[in-house]
Specification:
2 domains; 8 strands; Immunoglobulin-like; single chain; four-stranded antiparallel β-sheet; alpha+beta; four-stranded mixed β-sheet
Length: about 140
C-alpha cells in the first residue's frame, strides 16, 4: 500500500475549523489545526483536494501519481496572507479599545480606511478565489 501523509500548518485563521481531505471525490478524513495524519491509499494516479468545514471554500485539485511502495507528504495551509490579515485585525481592535476617547474619532477614520482593503481581500477569497482559500503543497 502507498502512504499519503498530511501536515496541516498551525494557523491563526480558521484554527477552530477542520479541513476535510478528498481523494478522487471521496472523503478521506478530517484534519485539525496543527495536526498530522497518514492514510494508506492505492497506488496510481489520484486527484486530491481539501475543503474547509463551512461555505464552499476549498483548494485547487492536486494530481498525484504514487507507486505501490511510494509515499507522498502534503502540506495544508491557508491562503497566502490569511494569518497576517487576522493578526492585523486583532491588533486594530485592541488598539481601538485601549486608546482614550480623544483619539477615537481620528482612529475610527484610520481603522475604517485600513479595514476596507482587508475586507475586500477576504471577500475575494470567499467568492472568486474560493478555490484558493486552502493551499495544498506536495513536500519533497
Amino acid at each position: 500500500m502507498a502512504k499519503l501523509k498530511f501536515i496541516r500548518t498551525k494557523q491563526l485563521s480558521d484554527r477552530l475549523r477542520e479541513i476535510t481531505v478528498y481523494l478522487d471525490g471521496k472523503k478521506l478524513g478530517n484534519i485539525s489545526n496543527g495536526e498530522t495524519k497518514e492514510y494508506d491509499i492505492s497506488s496510481g494516479q489520484h486527484i486530491l483536494y481539501a475543503k474547509i468545514d463551512w461555505f464552499w471554500c476549498r483548494s485547487r485539485d492536486l494530481t498525484l501519481t504514487i507507486n505501490e511502495t511510494g509515499a507522498k507528504t502534503i502540506t495544508i495551509a491557508p491562503y497566502k496572507y490569511a494569518d497576517h490579515l487576522t493578526s492585523f485585525c486583532i491588533f486594530l481592535t485592541i488598539l481601538h479599545i485601549i486608546l482614550d476617547n480623544e483619539l477615537k474619532p481620528k482612529l475610527d477614520y484610520i481603522v475604517g480606511i485600513l479595514i476596507i482593503p482587508i475586507f475586500l481581500i477576504i471577500i475575494y477569497y470567499l467568492t472568486f478565489g474560493r478555490k484558493d482559500y486552502i493551499t495544498l503543497k506536495e513536500t519533497i
